[in-house]
Write a structure and sequence with these properties.
By secondary structure, the protein is mainly alpha-helical. The chain contains five helices and no strands. It is elongated, with a radius of gyration of 14 Å.
């Protein structure tokens, strides 16, 4: 999964003008973070899925930004990964 490349913040802002495009971008960022943390803990997608009570394919979709997340799911992932969920509006 690759994030789009932008030459500057204005180009990024122009691309993310709609709520749906911003949502897609944020889900991709969250997915990349889940992937990196899972790898850091040497956990397979199947192991994470088992701990989360879901399937490996759901984890794969999460990691590629193609899965919707609930706050509850993100909190559970935090417990599994031993991380605290922090949400902020900037």
């Amino acid at each position: 999964m690759k994030l789009p490349k932008f030459t500057n913040e204005t180009a990024l802002a122009d691309t993310l003008k709609t709520p749906s495009s911003l949502e897609s971008y944020e889900k991709t960022l969250i997915g990349k973070e889940i992937f990196a943390l899972r790898k850091k803990t040497h956990m397979t997608q199947k192991e994470m899925a088992s701990k989360l009570g879901t399937t490996q394919s759901v984890i794969a979709r999460m990691e590629t930004g193609k899965q919707n997340f609930t706050i509850g799911t993100l909190i559970k992932l935090g417990f599994i990964l031993r991380k605290k969920l922090h949400v902020s509006f900037l």
